[in-house]
Every structure is written in structure tokens, then in C-alpha cells.
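Worked example 2:
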Amino acid sequence: MKILVTGAAGFIGYHVSKRLLARGDEVIGLDNLNAYYDPTLKQARLARLTAREGFSFTRTDLGDRAAMEGLFAGGGFARVVHLAAQAGVRYSIENPHAYADSNLTGTLHVLEGCRHHDVEHLVYASTSSVYGANTKMPFSVHHNVDHPLSFYGATKKANELMAHTYAHLYRLPVTGLRFFTVYGPWGRPDMALFQFTRNILAGKPIDVFNYGKHRRDFTYVADIVGGVIAALDHVAQPNPDWNGDDPDPATSSAPYRLYNIGNNQPVKLMHYIAVLEQCLGRKAEMNLLPLQTGDVPDTWADAEDLVRDVGYRPSTPVEIGIRKFVDWYLEYYRDGAPPDPRVTNLG
């Protein structure tokens, strides 16, 4: 298939694109290569993709309506994996306009492109942040999620609503995936594992919020990718049993589906740090701090719907996943700085 992957130079987008290419799909990658985090890392991911047969790249901003219309008009995409977004809970407090431009306007441009150009299936990224003030565990896609605690979470909840309207009005099959904390090689420098590793190796303290009492549904990136592609292959269908008198938030009379995609096994943050210390052979000095504004104490994904519908079964424990991340990190930053983006021997 010819597949558009937005955010292809990003963490998850890179891994999804690589897996699609490996199975023989043609991938058109889109990214704006912004400086939210080190563009060198994005360029290195992109260099590895462009070296593969079947991949082409367009540097385009989701918010550029004319560019997005032109991309879809000439694309001939069978399916779309929409992963590009302005990410980060804390940054959304500092710069909410960036989230409106990318996550709201940008997603509208993707929906319009899919609608007007007969895309068979749109799979898009949502987030566990939509659960916000919910405390009933595990988090279920069948629960109401009307109380987000960050503007980032609110934009992703809006994406789910926008997607449903297009599924209803235009019968566009759409599947939303609520990602829980994803980690692994080529990860994002703003994420905890990356920051912890960098500081521990530099002999600097790490900031541990909520006094280390967090629990997170840490999910290894290879497991996530398997779920994304399985969902892409399973085109969303209407739920014939959907009832407006008792509406199920995860399904619809339209071709619309929502899924959690996580490890379904929360891990204590202090255990996560202990595993990292073991992999690095160094102890961490910790600054124990209170819960941050917009953050939630715990996440736990009920992923049984995705298991049932597409056979998704995450299998990587944090002991193995963190080891793989550390091995990658030590190779990538082997001289204290990233290698030339053209490097091709990293995992």
C-alpha cells in the first residue's frame, strides 16, 4: 500500500515507517522538523529512512493548508497514519498556541485530505492524557473523558471528537489510539527515560516528581508499533449494537473506533529508575519533588479491546526495554555527542 505517515521523523513515526517499509509498503513521510527538541536526532532518524527503498519525504507543516491540500491531491494515499503533533504536557502550559496550530488545525487538514481523496482508513494518535482527572483504574476507552488536566490532553480529546464527526458525516473510517508512556531506542529527549539517562551519566541529579510515587504504563516502542500497524490493517467499522440512549464512547454507528495502546501493566517509577541504574551501572541522585501541574499520578491501560480486535499483545518487560534503550543511547552518544546523521549502523 501507499501510506502517508505524518511525524515520520519523530520517535514513533520513525519506528512505524521502518516497519511498514520492511513489509513492502510505500511510505511517504511528512514532518516539519521543528526544534521542540534536538533536530539532529530527527535528522538522524530521517537519514535512516531515506536510505531505504520505498520511502520518500516531504518537509511540510500540518498547519499549512495549501501545502496539505497539494500533498493529498497528488498523493494517492491508500491509508494514513497521523502521528505528527505538538507533544508534551508541560510545554502546553507554556505555549498553548503551538498545540492549537498543530493538533487542532493540523489534524483538520489531515481529515479534510482524507475526506476529499478517498483514503480507506485513517489511524491517528491520541493520548492517555485525555483521562485527566479520572481515577478509576485501569483506564478504559468506554469511560467518559471530559476532564483533561492539560491543554495538550484537551487538544487530543478534541481530535477524537473531530474524527468522529468525519466518520459520521463522510463515512471516513477512523481509528484513534490512546498512547500510554512509550519508550525505547531513538526516543524523545524530553521524556523521562532520556533525561534520567543523560543526567545519571553526567553525574547530575534527576528530578523525580510526585516524590517518586508515580505508576506508569510504560510501553516499549516495538510493541506499540505492532499495535499501530495491526490497527491500520483492521479498517474501522460501525458498531451495529451502538445505542444513542446509552452511547459507548469507544465505538459508534459510524466507522469509528478508539483503543488504548499500552502495556496493560503499570510499573512503579522507582522500579523503573532502579532498572535504569542497573543497566547504567550507576546510582542516581534524586531530587524528590511534588506533582507537576497538569500531570496525573498514575496511568494504567485497559487494552483488551485492541487485544480482541487485532491481536495486540505487548510482550517486552521494562528490564529488557530499558536495556535496549541504554545500549542504543551509549552507541549513539558514544563520544558525548550525536554522530553524523548519515550513520546507518544503529538499531
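The two ends are 25 Å apart (CA to CA). DSSP finds eleven helices and 13 strands in the chain.
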